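Collaborator request, handled under Task 6.
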Amino acid sequence: MNQTPLKNSTAVLVLGILSIIGCFCYGIIGLILGIIALALAGKDMKLYNSNPDAFTPGSFSNLKAGRVCAIIGVILSALYLLLMIIAIAFVGLDSINNPQGLREALENLS
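Structure tokens returned to the collaborator:
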């Protein structure tokens, strides 16, 4: 039987890796890319589970690795976004953009 690669396996892997890298962009980009990767991975997992013999094992491995990367990226992005929200709530947006103001705000907290 002629096996074909899963349609979105490479895209899931790339988006999963980019979601880990994107978590440092205030968490928003990594969160978006990770959620997209998880949605694509879910579709391809269902497709693979319906007929595993029709798809190449390499593409399924890429899909699983991309899914794991996407989960890690979503978790890191959510934590970083939460950290940024807490920082803005405690020291304010102006203090974060101004290094001297941030230093003064942190000194006032302690």
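The cover message to the collaborator said: "DSSP finds five helices and no strands in the chain. The first helix runs from residue 9 to 22. Please let us know whether this matches your experimental observations."
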